[in-house]
Amino acid sequence: MSAYKTGKLIIEGKTKQVFELLEDRTLCLLQSKDRITAGDGVKSHQLAGKAAISTATTAKVFELLNQAGLKTAFVRVEGETSFIAKKCEMVPIEWVTRRLATGSFLKRHPGVPEGFRFNPPLQETFFKDDANHDPQWSAQQIVSAKFKLNDVIIGQDEYDIMNRTTLTVFEVLERAWATRDCALIDMKIEFGIDANGEILVADIIDSDSWRLWPSGDKRLMKDKQVYRNLTTVTDADLTTVKRNFEWVANQLEYLVPPPSSKVVIFMGSPSDEEHCNKIARYAATLGVKAELRVTSAHKAPAETLKILSEYEGTGEKVVLVAVAGRSNGLGPVLSGNTALPVINCPPVKPDNVQQDVWSSLNVPSGLGCTTVLYPESAALAAAQIHALHDHLVWSRLRVKQLTNFITLKRADVRLRN
Ligand SMILES: Nc1ncnc2c1ncn2[C@@H]1O[C@H](COP(=O)(O)OP(=O)(O)OP(=O)(O)O)[C@@H](O)[C@H]1O
Ligand SMILES: [Mg+2]
């Protein structure tokens, strides 16, 4: 139990209790139970240790989503079996995303073979109503219900934001699981509206929320489907289910790796430092570390190549950015002497851009450096290269695109009203 003073029980469901927190009324405590249920609660068993595994799983998943830049209700773990979250009024919808067809989808769509692949992932919504077995709802039904939660009415714009956020959450988790050679087949999440009217990914995300098939092999499934599939439930079965859940929680330890992607920004002159700092700051927001070096390919070519060899020798994953004003010898010289990607980002001024940019663009044969003009573009280009191997950088880029979508939508809503 929490060291915090809990207030009254706000709500109790099948798998957890939600308590008010007396210290801060905008937060709540989600206390997990040692209980596993399926079929709208028809099947239900006590499973010692499940609360702790579920809490550890949710905490790791939300840590990953928060690191990617997604807005979630998760605040922090509080004891082994509970965590603190922003107190929300919950949107009574289950947001489901599917990469492969399986389970209930096959029953609702006869003729589609199991394993049919959805590109982009398929999205479905279900109204949370145990008594009626959570019926599937269309966007029109959700908007027409006019849910009012913490003074926010769920309209088309809110639906669009949640729908797109759901897709991003799925993609982020799918990429993360892929690093463990595990296929995320489908996923269910819920949203809440907090006291500030913010739309947050809320509730929990644990082994009850998804299907996970190691190596993409259904027979190896590690999620709650194993429990759902049981007709009789023995102690040995429950032990297997628990072992699977433990395996998932352990794998999650590897899904938030320390930052490893790096950009090294070479500048031809210290006078370009501010331009380089801008690139470094943008890179940091995308989860890419930056290092700044000063060296002139014109005045000290041997030194430039010596510095280059430092980075080639470490075996790190590095993208180079060359910042040189007037005639840019730096980027092309680097590019001609390394297999690392080189991005030119010359600090051009409006009055000389026409002339100076040509030294970055019109390079000798055999060179493959690319050129961008803005510090933000250089950081984004470097991050997109790193995203090929670093799922956290990929996730930051994806969430940045989601954030752009939401920002534009909010601006449009403001002008419409
Ligand atoms: N951050 C939050 N703030 C307020 N309520 C929350 C929050 N996160 C989850 N809840 C709510 O806590 C309740 C209890 O959760 P639980 O998962 O045990 O319910 P359940 O029996 O599974 O039923 P349900 O089908 O509604 O999930 C749910 O109604 C859920 O929406
Ligand atoms: Mg629930």
UniProtKB/TrEMBL annotation:
Annotated InterPro entries: PurE_classII, PurE_dom, SAICAR_synt/ADE2_N, SAICAR_synthetase, SAICAR_synthetase_CS
A molecular function (GO) term: phosphoribosylaminoimidazolesuccinocarboxamide synthase activity
Pathway the protein takes part in: Purine metabolism; IMP biosynthesis via de novo pathway; 5-amino-1-(5-phospho-D-ribosyl)imidazole-4-carboxylate from 5-amino-1-(5-phospho-D-ribosyl)imidazole (carboxylase route): step 1/1; Purine metabolism; IMP biosynthesis via de novo pathway; 5-amino-1-(5-phospho-D-ribosyl)imidazole-4-carboxamide from 5-amino-1-(5-phospho-D-ribosyl)imidazole-4-carboxylate: step 1/2
GO biological process: 'de novo' IMP biosynthetic process
GO cellular-component term (any): cytosol
UniProt keyword annotations, A-Z: ATP-binding, Decarboxylase, Ligase, Lyase, Multifunctional enzyme, Nucleotide-binding, Purine biosynthesis
Keyword GTP-binding found: no
Gene3D superfamilies (UniProt xref): 3.40.50.1970, ATP-grasp fold, B domain, Phosphorylase Kinase, domain 1
Occurrences of domain PurE (ranges): 261-408
Domain of life: Eukaryota
Entries under PROSITE patterns matching the protein: SAICAR_SYNTHETASE_1 (PS01057), SAICAR_SYNTHETASE_2 (PS01058)
Family named by the database record: In the N-terminal section; belongs to the SAICAR synthetase family.
Protein name: Multifunctional protein ADE2
Species annotation: Fopius arisanus
Taxonomic path: Eukaryota, Metazoa, Ecdysozoa, Arthropoda, Hexapoda
